[in-house]
Write a structure and sequence with these properties.
296 residues; elongated; 15 helices
């Protein structure tokens, strides 16, 4: 009688869980508001080719430092480039990079954490390696890698992903250490189930909730790190619009044309705020201890 229910839950997410998740989002104003804001920002960046009326790299010297108008909705920068186009394309670059960093960091950290937590002989050497990586400041590591490998998407994603992997690995390892002592896991191991099957069917599902929450924070950290590198002049080349480089280029003209710094700064702040608020609300929903505390 129990086998049909097991096969049903392993085949995918039951519709009842999807309904409960949708109901939880609708009942939580913080989660709903941050999710809607995040979806709006993602939508306008994905639709940048349709919303932007000008080429983000087109130079128009006669229109330099123009304020908002019917032709240039957010004004122009010091070289006469349309600021709206540059902000939209810069936001799309930041979101794309954040998704790549989050996917690589979560996948790598999951693999390392599962190996260290389940295979006892790998625990000490692997975690000491992770501790060594965590001892290196993430921003300095990114600056060094970009300086050596050049400012391209592969180098940027790798440089930002490496400092995040140990944090995710430690999180996964802590979950594995607590789950592997459960009776159903020990019974599965005692019955001769292969280690990969035990990890896949019994241990890895317990890591999904904390990984989903951590992935949102990795996205926010990646967006901020990319903006900092661009602001320091270590980001992508000038012909590729980036929120950090747009702010850096507009800093000398802030008193005369504050919109060059204001608009990309507001977009960057809203993007990071939406991701962090959604991650916090998601953590409150998925963490049983926080859920019990909120109910009490």
């Amino acid at each position: 009688m129990s086998s049909p229910s097991v096969s049903h839950t392993s085949a995918g997410v039951p519709p009842s869980q999807l309904r409960r998740a949708a109901t939880a989002v609708l009942k939580d104003p913080v989660m709903l508001g941050s999710l809607l804001l995040l979806l709006l920002l993602v939508a306008i960046t994905v639709g940048a080719p349709l919303l932007a009326q000008h080429d983000p790299g087109a130079l128009t010297p006669r229109a330099r430092l123009k304020s908002s108008s019917e032709v240039y909705w957010l004004g122009t920068d010091s070289l006469g480039r349309d600021l709206l186009s540059r902000v939209l394309y810069g936001g799309r670059l930041s979101i794309t990079l954040a998704v790549l960093v989050s996917a690589i960091s979560v996948a790598s950290g999951l693999l390392v954490g599962l190996s260290a937590g389940y295979v006892r002989r790998l625990d000490a050497p692997v975690m000491r390696l992770m501790d060594g990586i965590m001892a290196i400041p993430g921003l300095l590591l990114a600056v060094a890698m970009v300086a050596l490998g050049g400012a391209n998407i592969v180098t940027m994603v790798t440089a930002i992903s490496i400092p995040e992997i140990p944090r995710i690995a430690r999180l996964v390892r802590s979950v594995v250490l607590s789950v592997r002592e459960e009776p159903y896991v020990e019974a599965s191991v005692g019955s001769g189930t292969p280690a990969l099957s035990v990890l896949w069917r019994h241990i890895m599902p317990s890591t999904i909730n904390p990984l989903v929450v951590q992935a949102t924070f990795v996205c926010a950290a990646a967006i901020l790190t990319e903006a900092v590198l661009g602001f320091l002049g270590l980001g992508f080349p000038p012909e590729i619009p980036s929120l950090g480089s747009i702010i850096a280029e507009g800093r000398p003209f802030f008193q005369r044309a504050p919109w060059i710094v204001l608009y990309p700064g507001v977009f960057l702040a809203l993007l990071i705020l939406a991701v962090n608020m959604f991650g916090d609300a998601l953590r409150d929903r998925l963490d049983p201890r926080l859920s019990r505390k909120s109910k009490g």
